[in-house]
Amino acid sequence: MAESVLAERDPSARNEIRMTIPVTGMTCAACQARVQRTLERTPGVQAASVSLMTNSASVVFDPEMASAMTLVDRIRGTGYGADLPNESLSAIDELAAQDKSLGDEYRSLRSRAAVSLVLLAVAMLLSMPLMTGGGHGNPSGVADPFMRWSMRVFDPVLREWFPWLYSIAAARLSWVLLGMTTAVMAWAGRDFYVRAWKAARHGSTDMNTLVAIGTGTAWLFSALVTVAPGFFVSRGISPDVYYEAVIGIIAFVLAGRALEARAKSRTADAVQRLARLQPATARIERDGSFIVVPIEDVRSGDVVSVQPGERVPVDGRVLDGASAVDESMLTGEPLPVDKAAGDRVYGGTVNRTGAFRLIATTLGAESTLSRIVGLMREAQRSRAPIQALADRVSSIFVPVVLIAAVATGVVWYVFADIAPLVRGFVAATSVLIIACPCAMGLAVPTAVMVATGRGADLGVLIKGGEALQRLAEVNTFVFDKTGTITQGVPVVTEIAPMAGGSVLDVLSTAASLEQSSEHPLGAAIVTEAGRRGAMVETSSDFQALPGRGATGTVAGRPVAIGNARLMLERGIDMTHVPPMESGTAIMVAREGAIIGVIGISDRPRAEARQAISALVAEGATVHMLTGDAARAAEAIAREVGIANVRSQLLPEDKVGAIRQLQTESGGRVVAMVGDGINDAPALAQADVGIAMGTGTDIAVEASDVAIMRGDLMAVVAAHRLSRKTMRVMRQNLFWAFVYNVVGIPIAAGILFPVAGLLLSPILASAAMALSSVSVVSNSLRLRRLRLT
Question: 543 pairs with which residues across the strands?
Fold first, then answer.
């Protein structure tokens, strides 16, 4: 396969290809760090980002120095699975495959955990007689504190209900437990040992290494006691067995991973909901009749029928018919949007009222829905800079824990006065099991996934963890005027008649001439004439004069409409022309004399003042940059509450203005909000570019955040979401670090001299599982945020 098919060439660099490679077998932050480190060290790789949440690696590389297959082989060389990406799959198809994989993983983990927990209960039942003197166990004390507690609670009950257990030979019970534990290890815990072995073969360690060594050592010790108990008794070593600890560790780690898999699938709920919007079939016209075909069989140019209540199957333009379409799932806009012939409609939206036919345009991976899903998937694969600390710790975490476990065992063996070998063994096993790099690996990616999903619910596409973190740091917002703060549609705001004329006369004359014009200002005049019921007559000799206005004949009389430059060219007196309070002044002259002035301006969005006030209330400074004239710009700024205005700027001037703000004392972090082609350079210059999705594709592509509906409150929501997400990330990292900093010493027995407390390996495994689940659960709180 050609790499051009499999990967996307970065348009900003001639020799760069960006590719996402699916990776299998990663289970913790150490796995993720190893794959990323390997890719970053590969010649030709400019950047690599490995995601534990999406099980993928995003790589930017030079095709002249490295091939796609080279990267796949490098990943395989670390002990994990990797394949070339399937170019035939759209983002929606990829998501469906990942969703199925997560579901299969969850069900497998759940069944193995459930069986292991049941066998744990049986193992504990069978272990009681051994620990209470019914066999060769130590009758005076048990090293495992959890089993000591269980013995005190359950032994009297078992003696009363199951007295026959205590008559069974201890050796026979031990052999039964050995067989049961071996079966659990071989079936339920198989992945731990296979993955640990793979990591060892490649000279590395991960979370599976800790579990495999901890349970493997406990099993080996117990098996030797079962086979040759006299060897231990003759040397003064208590012949305790730890089969229930092995089963318990495997059971609780599997249960934790099952809960983690379930929670991870919930972090992608928003993007999965989007993917499920794609209908499976479409009704297309073939040979004069409509037939239902799979969505994959629709081709560009096909005529598609959409009935009331149905989802629009593909992107297209309305051919005939009219309706109101609910686009809330894509834009967050709650009200249906009216559609008529020529209007664009999008696959996945809901047709609410009338029926219409559309001509299919963009399909498959190029469809709007698939592109949005793709952007979200790319964002969720990205990494926030705050993740770097966790990555550094994770890369050395497992070797440090192994050293700590050995040191713990040695210290207990040297200094313990009672059963030093056994107590040292229990403490070292607890250290191995309680250590959890997983929580550190999940702390940031889970928050990024949930936050980008919550943003999508609000009609906000945040393009990755880095953009999310930078947006949280923004303290200065710069807005374009036309189409961003304003509606982008000019309207008539003032009409001032002269020489005793009337408003309707001025409007009728202007509209009669401008009905032949394609200029937006002319369209605004015609619209206002229709609204007021002014008469529109037939005109002739129409001539558009770019940059000045238009001339022609209305009812046999010459008419000129335009700016001061046109009036000067025609020698028309402007001495008594009244000034317009805001907007653009359009003078209407008939037979060489001005009969009135029409003021046209672009009105602010209804929510603009509220959005600006909200940003200011949160401590941000707000600026407006525009290419419009100073008077019009200042009038809009006053209306929406912006104090800092710069007008008559070219695109390069806007870039310079943003650069100036960025270099001012105090270290401003600047976000630019715009919608047009002329805003793209400024969006790229800003620390965070925010594009209104109602604008051009170029502006959206140049941005870090895309607002999918024309609502400035979405900018406020995005800023609030980013700040709250950073708070959750810091909480996750704090608790992940604290858990290990506190948990490992407790497992090693630091509290034993003071409180006589030694942590059981079974409880250590439960605590380890809980740490990962708690981090994911904390991130899921972001789904319920109320932001506006």
Answer: 551
- Alpha-carbon span 88 to 374, nearest angstrom: 14
**pLDDT score at 582:** 63
pLDDT digits (tens, 9 = 90+) for 310-368: 999 999 999 999 888 888 766 656 567 888 899 999 888 889 888 999 999 988 878 87
Return the amino acid letter for 298: V
Q: Would you say the C-alpha torsion 60, 64, 66, 70 has a positive or negative sign?
A: positive
93 is catalytic: no
User: What are residue 47's DSSP bridge partners?
Assistant: 60
d(CA 405, CA 395): 18
Choice among 240, 457, 480, 675 that is catalytic: 480
Taking the C-alpha atoms of residue 526 and residue 512, their distance in angstroms, rounded to an integer, is 8
Alpha-carbon distance of 479 to 654, in angstroms, equals 10
How far are the Cα atoms of 127, 157, 164, 761 from residue 150, in angstroms, in the given order?
10, 11, 19, 14
Pair 218, 246: CB distance under 8 Å: yes
- 167: DSSP letter: G
> What pTM, to 2 d.p., does this model score?
0.71
Which tokens is 270 given?
């928003």
| Count, residues in the chain | 788
pLDDT digits (tens, 9 = 90+) for 129-143: 655 544 333 434 444
Which H or E run includes 536?
none
Structure tokens, 410: 């040695």
User: Which among 460, 421, 488 is positioned nearest to 235, based on CA atoms?
Assistant: 421
